[in-house]
Amino acid sequence: MLRTIAISSVLLPGLVAAQVAGAQSGQTSPPSYPSPWMEGGNGWDDAYAKAQAFVSQLSLLEKVNLTTGVGWEGEQCVGNTGSIPRLNFRGFCMQDSPLGVRFADLVSAFPAGINTAATWSRTLFNARGNAMGSEHRGKGVDVQLGPVSGPLGRVPEGGRNWEGFSPDPVLTGIAMAETIKGIQGAGVIACAKHYILNEQEHFRDKSSTSEASSSNMDDTTMHETYLWPFADAVKAGVGSVMCSYNQINNSYGCQNSYTLNHILKNELDFQGFVMSDWAAQHAGVASALAGLDMTMPGDQGFDSNTSYWGGNLTASILNGTIPQWRLDDMAVRIMSAYFKVGRDSARIPVNFDSWTTNTTGYLHALDPTRDVQVVNQHVNVQDDHAKLIRQIGQRSTVLLKNTNGALPLHMPASVAVIGEDAHSNPGGPNNCSDRGCDIGTLAMGWGSGTVNFPYLVAPVDALRAQAATDNSRFANYSNNYDLKSAQMTAANASVAIVFVNSDSGEGYITVDGNAGDRNNLTLWGNGDALVAAVASSNKNTIVVMHTVGPVIVEAMKNNPNVSAILWAGLPGQESGNAITDILYGKANPAAKSVFTWGKDRADWGVDVLYTANGSPPQIDFTEGNFIDYRHFDQAGIAPSYEFGFGLSYTNFSYSNLQIQKQNAAAYVPTTGQTKAAPTFGTIDTSVADNSYPPGFDGVKFYIYPYLDSTTPVNNGTKTPVPPNSQSSSPQPKLPAGGAPGGNSGLYDVLYTVTAKITNTGKVDGIEVPQMYISLGGPNDPKIVLRGFDDLSIKAGQSATFKADIQRRDISNWDTVSQNWVISSYPKTVYVGSSSRNLQLKAVLNGNNYNGGYGGNGNNGGNYGNGGYGNNNNNNNYYNNNNNNNNGGWENHGGEGNNGGHDGNNGQSGDGGHW
Ligand SMILES: *[C@@H]1O[C@H](CO)[C@@H](O)[C@H](O)[C@H]1NC(C)=O
Ligand SMILES: *[C@@H]1O[C@H](CO)[C@@H](O)[C@H](O)[C@H]1NC(C)=O
Ligand SMILES: *[C@@H]1O[C@H](CO)[C@@H](O)[C@H](O)[C@H]1NC(C)=O
Ligand SMILES: *[C@@H]1O[C@H](CO)[C@@H](O)[C@H](O)[C@H]1NC(C)=O
Ligand SMILES: *[C@@H]1O[C@H](CO)[C@@H](O)[C@H](O)[C@H]1NC(C)=O
Ligand SMILES: *[C@@H]1O[C@H](CO)[C@@H](O)[C@H](O)[C@H]1NC(C)=O
Ligand SMILES: *[C@@H]1O[C@H](CO)[C@@H](O)[C@H](O)[C@H]1NC(C)=O
C-alpha cells in the first residue's frame, strides 16, 4: 500500500524530537510573561461583568484581602480569605475534600474518585459531584477542594492516586468535567487539583533542609497525557485550579510561569483563579507575576504569622513591583468564579468548624482571647445521598474472576466471612485522624482527601443480615494472622468470602511504614497468606479486595479454589450494602478496571522515587506517554487483568461497527491579540491609609493586608522582575489557545462511531463498551482510550453504542508548531469490552480527517524575550528556590529567543494521502 511512503514523507519533526529529548534532570521551564489577564467569553461574560463591577469599588487592601488567606486555623474552614466588612462580604471558605465535606458532622462519605471512575458512568460522575456540591453548599463552603487529576496515576504506588480517577487521561478528563459540572451546578466553586505532575508523595514538599522534587517533563507528554484532563476541567468551566507542591522542570508549581501563565491561562484560556496548595507558595512577587491568584492558607508556614502576600502584596503594589492590573486580575478572577456558579444567591453563613466538634468554641481557633460562640450548628446535609453512594458502590465493583457461576450467591446453606477487612474498626470508623491507619474495613484512603464517616456499613454486618434472610448458617472471623482459625471457620461453609485490603494516602501521615506512597503492591496485613490459607480449606473461596489501586493477584487468579475475585475499591459509607448487592446478584456487576493489574511491580516500568537522587530530587518522566496500559502494550507485558476489564453475570456480543464522517470545519489556529490589561478602580497610594489602623486589635496568628513596619514600601531602588512581566500591552494569543480547554476546533466532532451491543445472557445487565484509537505513529501508544458509555441492556436485547471522535482525539501535540496536528499515519478505531478485548475494528479513512492543521501559527512573542536573569540574590520573591543560582527559569534563555518557530510548516493539513 501507499502507506509506508506517506508515513516517511510526513514524519513530524516535533514528535520525533520530543521522544529524543524526553525528560531530563535539571531541565528548566521557559519563562512566560506577562500573566494573562481575564477577558471573559465562553460562558464567563456575565460573571466577568459582575466581578468587574464588584472589584471596581474595592480599595487596595480589600483586593489584597480577597487574594490572601488569613492563616492556618484562622477561621472555620481549612482555607479562608480576608473579608470586606465595608460591603458586608465575608471571606471565602475553602474546604476539603474531593469525596465530601472534611472535618464536619452530618455529612456523607462518598466513594473515592477511583471508584467513581470505575462506574464509567457520566451520569454517576455528575450526580456524585452534584451531591457533594450540595453538601458543601449546605455547610456554607464557597470552594470544594476537588476533583483531582494530579496525581493522574503514573506510578501505581502513588499515595494519592485513589483521590483521582484513573491513569488514563481521557477517562479522568471526562470524570473531571462531569464532577465539576455537578459541583458547580450546586452553586459551589470546584477546584481542579493538583496542577501539575504531583505524582508521588515522597519529596513533594519543600522542607527546611531540601527543596521539593522536580517532575521533569517533555512538551509532548505534557499535552497528550498529564494536561489533558486539566484541559477538560477548564473546558467544563472550573472556577479554580490548585497549583501543586512539587517543582515542574525545577520551578515550583505555584510560581512556574510556563505552567501557569503560558499553558493554563494562555493556551487553555483558564478564566478562573489559581490558588496555592497549602503552603506551596515560596515567593511573593515571583508567584504573583507567574500567575498565582490566591495564597492558601495565607501564611508562609502554618501559623508562621508572616505572609508572602497580605501586607507584602500591598507593599509590592505600592512600590511598583507588581502592577495594579495583576492584582485587579487576581480579584476579578476570584469574583468571577464566585458569580459564575451563583454564589451570590447560594451563599449561606459557614455553619461548621474544622477545628472542633464542640458546638461552642473559639471563632478563631488559635486565639482564645475572643469570640467564643456557636461554631458548629450541626446542619444535616446528607439528604438521601446514601442511595447514590450505595449505587456507586455497586457500579464500581469490578468482577475480575468468576468460575463456574460461583457468583451470584443464591441462598447458600452456609456462609463464612473472613478477614479483618470485613469488620469494623473497633474504635469506630473515624478512630484514626484523617483515616491514618488500616484497621478494620477500608472504605477510603488517608490524608486530607477524606471526611468523617457518618457511619460505615461493614461487610460482615450486611452479609450477616443477608444470611439471616436466607436462613444461611453464618460464621465470621477477623484475625488475619491466626490462619488456623480462619481455615477452621471456612472449612465447612458453602462459600468462604475473604476480605483483604491495601491502603495509601497523603505523605504527612505514615501508616505501617508507608509514607503516603505504598512500599509494595502486595496486600496488607498478611492478606495474601490469608487468602491462600482459606482457599486451601474451602474450594469455593471468594476474594473481595478493598484496595487503593492494583495489587499483585496472580496467585489468587491461578488458584483453582479461588472461585471469584472482586475489586471493591474504596466505596465509602455504604460499603457492606454495596458488596452484598453484588455478591447476591441484586445488582449485576458492570464496572471495568480503571488501571492495569500487573504481575510484578517491575511490569509498570516506573516507580516512586523513594530515595533522593540529588537536591532537589529529580523525577524524570522519561517513559513519556507510556504509563499503565500504554506501557504494558508497548513492552508486550501480559497483565493479570488489563485496563478496562470487568465481568458481568451476563454476556455481551459486539457487532456492526459503523463510522460516520461529520461535517466539521477546518481547524483554524488561533491568531490575534488580547486587549490591553484592564484595571478596575484607582488605588489610594497613601502609606498611612494602607497601614494598620490606629489601635488595631488583631486576631492572633492572623494574616492581614496592611503594611507593617517590617514591610518595605519603597527603599529607593527597583526590584528586578522578569522581562515583560509588568507589561499591560496586548499580547499574542497562542495557535492552540483561544477558548477554555484550548482552541475550540480541537473539540469539533470529526466522526461518530456506532456499534451494536447485544446482551446474549439470561439476566439484564450494563455493559461499558470502550472505543480505542491507534494513532499509528512510531511514538504513539498501541491504542489510546477515546470514548466509552454505560449501556443498560435487557437480557436478549441490543443497544447502540455511540461515541464521537473529536479532533483532539486523533491529533498529536507538535512541539515545533506548538499546536495539535493530525498525522498522516493510518488510524484505526477499535470498540471492545476492554483494552485487550477489542471485538470490532475499522481503519479511519484518512481522506476524511478534515482539514488538519492550517499552519500559520502565531506563537511568537509570548514566550518572553529570553532569559530572566540571575536575580537570585534576594530572598524568596521571584526565585523558585534559594539555592538555584545556576538554574531555574530565571536564568534560562528559554524559547524566547526563537519566539517564532511558528507554523509556516502546515504539514498535516492533508491528513490522508494513503
Ligand atoms: C520542561 O522542559 C523541557 C525541556 O526544556 C521543555 O521542552 C518543556 O516544554 C518544559 N515543560 C514545562 C512544563 O515547563
Ligand atoms: C481584611 O480581612 C480581615 C479578616 O476578615 C478583616 O478583619 C479586615 O477588616 C479586612 N480589611 C479590610 C481593609 O477590609
Ligand atoms: C513579608 O515577607 C518577608 C520575607 O518573607 C517576611 O519576613 C515578612 O514577615 C513579610 N511581611 C508580612 C507582613 O507578612
Ligand atoms: C516592594 O515590596 C516587596 C514586598 O514587600 C518587596 O519584596 C520588594 O523588595 C519591594 N521593592 C522595593 C523596591 O521596595
Ligand atoms: C471541647 O469541649 C471540651 C469540654 O468542654 C473541652 O475540654 C475541649 O477543650 C473543647 N475542645 C475544643 C477544641 O475546643
Ligand atoms: C507490604 O506492605 C504492607 C503494608 O505495610 C505490609 O503489611 C506487607 O507485609 C508488605 N508486603 C511485603 C511482602 O513485605
Ligand atoms: C532595597 O530592597 C531590595 C530588595 O529587598 C534590596 O535588594 C536592595 O538592596 C535594597 N536597597 C536599598 C538601597 O536598601
Report on the structure:
It is built from 21 helices and 29 strands. The chain is of the alpha/beta class and 914 residues long. Among the domains are: 384-594 and 643-649, Glycoside hydrolase family 3 C-terminal domain (Rossmann fold, 3-Layer(aba) Sandwich), CATH 3.40.50; 653-667 and 736-844, Immunoglobulin-like, CATH 2.60.40. The strands form eight sheets. A six-stranded mixed β-sheet has the order 1-2-3-4-6-9. Strands 12-17-16-15-13-14 form a six-stranded mixed β-sheet, with helices on both faces. The radius of gyration is 27 Å and the shape is globular. Residues 1-20 and 847-914 have low confidence and may be disordered. The structure holds 2-acetamido-2-deoxy-beta-D-glucopyranose (7 copies). One 2-acetamido-2-deoxy-beta-D-glucopyranose (NAG) binds next to α4.
Please specify the SSE layout and strand pairing.
Layout: H1 3-9, H2 13-21, H3 45-56, H4 60-67, E1 79-80, E2 93-95, H5 113-118, H6 122-139, E3 143-144, H7 169-185, E4 189-195, E5 214-216, H8 219-226, H9 228-235, E6 240-243, E7 247-248, E8 251-252, H10 257-267, E9 273-276, H11 285-290, H12 311-318, H13 324-340, H14 343-346, E10 360-362, E11 372-374, H15 385-395, E12 398-402, E13 414-418, H16 459-470, E14 473-477, H17 483-491, E15 495-502, H18 527-537, E16 541-547, H19 554-558, E17 562-567, H20 575-583, E18 618-620, H21 629-635, E19 652-661, E20 749-759, E21 765-767, E22 770-774, E23 784-788, E24 791-793, E25 798-806, E26 812-814, E27 819-821, E28 828-832, E29 840-843
Parallel strand pairs: 2-3, 3-4, 4-6, 5-7, 5-18, 6-9, 13-14, 13-15, 15-16, 16-17
Antiparallel strand pairs: 1-2, 7-8, 10-11, 12-17, 19-20, 20-25, 21-24, 22-23, 22-28, 26-27, 28-29
Helix pairs in contact: 3-13, 4-13, 6-7, 6-15, 7-9, 15-20, 16-20, 17-18
The structure holds 2-acetamido-2-deoxy-beta-D-glucopyranose (7 copies).
